[in-house]
Amino acid sequence: MSVHKEVKRVTTHILQEMKNRGEKIAMLTAYDYSMAKVVDEGGVDIILVGDSASMVMAGHETTLPITLDQMIYHAASVIRGTTRALVIVDLPFGSYQGNSKEALNSAIRIMKESGAHGVKLEGGIEIAESIERIVAAGIPVMGHLGLTPQSIYKFGTYTVRAKEEAEAEKLKTDIKRIEAAGCFSVVLEKIPALLAKEVSESIQIPTIGIGAGQYCNGQVLVVNDMIGLTKGFTPRFLRQYLDLYNQINGAVQSYVKDVKAGGFPNEKEQY
Ligand code: KIV
């Protein structure tokens, strides 16, 4: 008899069934083994190894500096911590915009070297050919529209996107095009809730929102923001479930006090 518990890994097929029956999809980011383990056991359906690692893990101002090698390192650590969630990895800035062959090579490196289950790319019609090529190689692709942080220097700010008619129309065209190219799902970041509703209803594949309101088929947050580890980041869309920055800060202060006072370790804490 096998001693291994049977664990069912979430698949893109299961996510599609969830949309079809109206069940919401829960997604969070993770960047390392320990966080991935606790997030996976908490029951999320998808873990995103986001290029937000560039900001929350490495302290950069934007997502642009993180490299493909660094994403692979984070993704491999996350994979070792999960048994249930589908693990999707961001293709970082500069690893896919050149042409579809470059995009495919980067996606293949992520899949082979980290063991991840799929990749995410930012953009619409301009990357549709790359999506087609990656999907043709058997790699699941998640899209990302609305506020696409790799284009932050083009946008200039992190404010809500597609409020104007022209940008909303482009998003509606883009989402249809990347669905046709083979995306299994698409992240909608910081767009009006009613636009997210309209596009979620206009396509078959699930939409996952961040700052895109309640009508998306699922939600995603950056885990460090959601547990209150990112100090001073309080956008309207963020629900903070813990205040870990202050809790950890308090614990560190207590530890420092104990060490300085000679109160740690005590007799029971030594050999
Ligand atoms: O990099 C990231 O964490 C993301 C999410 C915000 C969707 O792309």
From TrEMBL:
Gene3D superfamilies per UniProt = Phosphoenolpyruvate-binding domains
Q: Name one GO molecular function term.
A: 3-methyl-2-oxobutanoate hydroxymethyltransferase activity
Recorded hits in InterPro entries, A to Z, give:
Pantoate_hydroxy_MeTrfase (IPR003700), Pyrv/PenolPyrv_kinase-like_dom (IPR015813), Pyrv_kinase-like_dom_sf (IPR040442)
* Top-level EC class as recorded in UniProt: transferase
Catalyses: (6R)-5,10-methylene-5,6,7,8-tetrahydrofolate + 3-methyl-2-oxobutanoate + H2O = 2-dehydropantoate + (6S)-5,6,7,8-tetrahydrofolate
User: What cofactor does this one take?
Assistant: Mg(2+)
Free-text remark on how the cofactor is bound: Binds 1 Mg(2+) ion per subunit.
Query: Where 3-methyl-2-oxobutanoate is bound, by residue?
Result: 51-52, 90, 120
* Pathway the protein takes part in: Cofactor biosynthesis; (R)-pantothenate biosynthesis; (R)-pantoate from 3-methyl-2-oxobutanoate: step 1/2
What does the subunit section of this Swiss-Prot or TrEMBL entry state?
A: Homodecamer; pentamer of dimers.
What this chain does, per the entry, is described as: Catalyzes the reversible reaction in which hydroxymethyl group from 5,10-methylenetetrahydrofolate is transferred onto alpha-ketoisovalerate to form ketopantoate.
Q: What is this protein called?
A: 3-methyl-2-oxobutanoate hydroxymethyltransferase
Q: Which organism is it from?
A: Pedobacter segetis
